[in-house]
Amino acid sequence: LVQEAFIRVTRHLHRFDTTKKFSTWVYTIASNLSKNELRNRSRSPLVLFQRLTGNWADDQRPLQFEDHSMRPDDLYRKRFLRRLVEDTVKELPEHHQLVFRLRELEGKSYEEISEITGVNLGTVKSRLHRARNSFAQRIEPLLN
After folding, report:
1. Which pLDDT tens digit goes with each residue over 8-30?
2. 18, 103, 108, 132: least buried by Cβ within 10 Å?
């Protein structure tokens, strides 16, 4: 948060009113960032999936759970989220489960998935697209 506060201060320095106290302005920025962070942490990390279909870029892994936070509430949320994802993936057809797991949970490339599954690249992409859509449709009601 401190780093983000300094970034915002330098980015918006041109907005600083020189008739006011600089330290108060910096404190306000840091305070607002802290409030936003607390608000975001109080929400379930499941909000990640509310805009799921827009987050399927080739280099994004929206379903990674690696986080080194040791806070009990964060650990609980991650366990809950992991269980929810696993249960939802199990509902997918088997051939969709496989490509979804390989790509979204293990981070394999399309080419690697094609090699592992023995199907052509176009089929991998098609199955993954269908698996993602099906996953998003199945998990969305569980998040509301």
Report:
1. 899 999 999 999 999 899 988 88
2. 18
